[in-house]
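Hi F.,

I've been meaning to write this up properly since the lab meeting, where we talked about keeping a consistent format for the predictions we share between groups. The idea is simple: the sequence comes first, exactly as it goes in, then the structure tokens exactly as they come out, then a line or two of notes. No screenshots and no reformatting. I'm using this chain as the first example so we have something concrete to point to.
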Amino acid sequence: MTNLPAIIAYQGVPGAYSHLSCRKAHPELEANACATFSDAMFMVERGQARLAMIPLENSTAGRVEEIYRLMPKTELHIVGEHFEPVNHCLLAPKGTKLEDITTVASHPQALAQCDGHINELGIRPVASLDTAGAASELSEKKTPGHAAIASSLAAELYDLEIIRENFQDKTGNTTRFLILARDSHIPALTNGSRFMTSIMFTVRNIPAALYKALGGFSTNGVNMLKLESYMASDTMTATSFHLDVEGHPDQKAMKYALQELDFFAKDVRIMGTYPLHHFRLEDDQIIE
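Output, unedited:
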């Protein structure tokens, strides 16, 4: 992987939360903005970037449906995960006072997450395509009384002033990202380390197919952390699943569980095994 360009691709505008996540997780790589998720992912598949930072789910907005449909179309592997707490900042041109602000632009989701503070200040919300794009436009036009809601990185890149940090109404809003690579990099199983394994598979449309496919994880004491379903084809005759379990393929319990999955499911594909992110451990996201 070291002979690939020292680039990490992401979808969005410079200053987006995906860009911020790239900086935090892999500051040694140059972050490259892409117009779409598929552009970022296929940039890695073509060898034009070393990694891609792709959002999979948000604690407030839920899953990013498009990613589940894109992953089977690539040969990429999951080599890590990153959790990014969303800190919405109220940004304005330098010298602006809070009482001068009359309108604020951002992505509709960000506006909704800051709705209480927006109403409290009597500011009129204006929908934009994305948070960083709103900040970029603000830096270019510098409309008097206009502000944007975006990341602290957007403030830095577009030379804007942070009028208020943590402008969201509720704390805890977090996005989980997958870090994708062209080659598989399964870490060695070591004592004291905890791993996540992500798996995709399909079951036939017959009674108890999913129950039987997952039974091995239960009987072998393997903790399942996430299960998402989606239709794998236009025919609606088969359902595909994305499964996250805590474990390493070299562990005996995992080997037995995967054997049962292979027997009752089809198109089983281990997307990657990677260390648990410290966010899960620090915030007790996994029950012992």
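Notes:
The chain has a mean pLDDT of 92.
The chain is about 30% helix and 35% strand.

If this format works for you, I'll send the rest the same way.

G.
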